[in-house]
Amino acid sequence: EVQLVESGGGLVKPGGSLRLSCEASGFTFSNAWMTWVRQAPGKGLEWVGRIKRETDGGTTDYGAPVKGRFTISRDDSKNTLYLQMNSLKTEDTAVYYCAKDMYHYDSSAYEVWGQGTLVTVSS
Amino acid sequence: QSVLTQPPSVSAAPGQKVTISCSGSSSNIGNNYVSWYQQFPGTAPKLLIYDNNKRPSGIPDRFSGSKSGTSAALGITGLQTGDEADYYCGTWDSSLNAGVFGGGTKVTVL
Q1: Could you tell me if A27 lies within 8 Å of chain B, comparing CB atoms?
Q2: Which residue of B has its CA nearest to A45?
Q3: Which of its termini does chain A have fewer beta carbons within 10 Å around, N or C?
Q4: Can you tell me the distance from the alpha carbon of B85 to that of A106, in angstroms, rounded to the nearest whole number?
Q5: CB of B39 closer than 8 Å to CB of B90
Q6: How high does pLDDT run on average in chain B?
Q7: Residue B63 contacts A where some CB pair is shorter than 8 Å
Q8: Mean pLDDT in residue range B54-81
Q9: Number of other residues whose CB lies within 10 A of the CB of residue B98
Q10: Strand partners for B109
Q11: What are the φ and ψ backbone dihedral angles of B93, each rounded to 5 degrees?
């Protein structure tokens, strides 16, 4: 069964840091492009960023609100995706989902989603 | 303010059809594939349509997708109470070099 399980969410103060993890199973993780999407309480989906597979350079792209503060990385030996979040702001409060891209091109759909992990930024 | 524009809500009676629009520009919908997602409260989104009009296995053919120019649409026929959910369109924006979503549309079955 293809599965993504996020962890690492919690309460953090503004200006603080947090690292989210997303453990993958049921597919060849090293061959996948992976994406982070977030959803603030009562709001819509917001694209956070993505990382390509190593054979495509392993490069990352980020949405404007998080660029320079968030970093996406992957450990293919552990089948795990990461989201390092620094300089957190109250507006970063959201449920964070990791997702598997269906194909290896920019407008690929997200075919598998994790259950999400809640990040709350508050003093 | 989302890059892609969707109506906040649509509604119809059971058995009827609804169409959800998703409007963008040449930098996103106009030159990229569109996908659609269904989300029930408190759960993760689920892929309904990819590459404009293709359905993953297990998605009923009551759900259909289309694209014309810089707009896309999701159609749901034979509306059921179990279809009450939020629906999002998504694509890539080549100018932003980022993924983008619509603001979401709540479907209500009257």
Answers
A1: no
A2: B101
A3: N
A4: 27
A5: no
A6: 97
A7: no
A8: 98
A9: 20
A10: B12
A11: -110, 115
| Nearest CB to A97; choose among B44, B49, B92 | B44
Task: Report pLDDT for B23.
Answer: 98
Tell whether B103 lies on the interface with A, counting CB pairs under 8 A. Answer: yes
CA distance B31 to A93: 32
Confidence at A41, pLDDT banded by 50, 70, 90 = very high
Report residue A10 as tokens.
């919690």
Chain B residues touching residue A49 (CB < 8 angstroms): 98
Residues of A within 8 A of B2 (CB-CB) are 44
Q: Is B24 left (phi over 0), alpha (psi -120 to 50) or beta?
A: beta
Instruction: Tell me the nearest-neighbour CA distance from A45 into chain B, angstroms.
Output: 6
**pLDDT tier at A69 (50, 70, 90 boundaries)?**
very high
When pLDDT is cut at 50, 70 and 90, the band that residue B1 belongs to is: confident
Three-state DSSP string of B47-98: EEEECCCECCCCCCCCEEEEEECCEEEEEECCCCHHHCEEEEEEEEECCCCE
In this complex, do A109 and B35 lie within 8 Å of one another by their Cβ atoms? yes
Tokens of B30: 């106009």
Interchain contact A106–B (C-beta under 8 A) = yes
Q: Contact at 8 Å (CB) between A113 and A22? A: no
